[in-house]
Design goal:
MetI-like fold; mainly alpha
């Protein structure tokens, strides 16, 4: 009699228990324990003190500056990143490899260096700032300057999220749409964009969450004027410098919850969008 072949899959890395244990240990030491420390320090305040700390006028104003500028920068990155990814995938031109490498420069460049460079460029004496100063427009030490710094930080998230999807798209879909009489615009919105939408949305959300907590590149160009250009991470640093760890961690906890909520909503929307694209829903 022929022996029946085993249907059990052979994994490259054997031992689920050991692998899972190592995974949970790494997550615990690097992610879970540091985040839980925020809760531990925050509970040192009574509920009334906690509410009073995170709802102070200066703190609320910093939340507003952080959220508005982060969302604006992420929105700009969503459009610019999509165009950059399209150009890098669909066209060939001299210097393409260099441009592709420059996209990841914000990942490697220290954020403080980026902030100093952008500040020098956008002040009234800088190359860019002097041109706009003639028109009566200030960039450095305003919300506009913060948005520019955040655009620099967040652009790779959108490009690197959309680029692989565009590279893997089968050109036969576009050819079929053209055979059916679709024009370029209709082909894009009906065929191409639904395919890249989950990745595009993921890039937008990651850029938004990253910009929300950015500190190094913003602190130089913002001017840090309370109620105007002061971001929430700067308020947290100010509390730490005053050794008020409970207040600092309470404000940080709010930012953590906001980032977690953003990523949770993104995961839900992206899951729904992926199902619709694949025809499950």
């Amino acid at each position: 009699m022929m022996k029946r072949k085993s249907t059990k899959k052979t994994r490259v890395i054997p031992g689920f228990g050991l692998s899972f244990g190592i995974t949970m240990t790494i997550l615990g030491l690097i992610v879970i324990i540091p985040l839980c420390s925020l809760v531990v320090f925050s509970v040192q305040l009574s509920p009334a003190e906690l509410i009073r700390t995170i709802t102070r006028p200066r703190v609320l104003a910093s939340y507003g500056v952080s959220f508005v500028t982060a969302f604006a920068a992420a929105a700009v990155n969503a459009g610019m990143g999509l165009i950059l990814a399209w150009v890098l995938v669909r066209y060939r031109f001299p210097g393409k490899r260099i441009m592709d490498g420059l996209i990841e420069l914000p990942f490697a460049l220290p954020t403080a260096v980026a902030g100093i460079a952008l500040t020098h460029l956008t002040t009234e004496n800088g190359w860019v700032g002097s041109l706009f100063a003639k028109l009566g427009i200030r960039i450095a030490y305003t919300k506009t300057g913060i948005i520019i710094a955040l655009i620099f930080i967040g652009i790779p998230f959108v490009v690197r999220s959309v680029q692989p999807v565009l590279e893997k798209m089968d050109p036969q879909y576009e050819e079929a749409a053209q055979i059916l009489g679709f024009g370029p615009v209709r082909t894009y919105w009906k065929v191409i964009f639904p395919e890249i939408f989950p990745a595009w949305l993921s890039g937008f959300t990651l850029a938004f969450a990253r910009c929300l907590g950015e500190y190094g590149s913003v602190v130089f160009i913002a001017g840090n004027t309370p109620f105007k250009t002061e971001i929430a991470p700067l308020v947290i640093m100010a509390q730490l410098q005053e050794y008020d760890y409970a207040s600092a961690t309470s404000i940080a906890l709010v930012m953590l919850l906001a980032s977690f909520l953003i990523l949770l909503i993104n995961a839900f929307i992206q899951s729904r969008a992926s199902k619709k694209v694949s025809g499950i829903v």
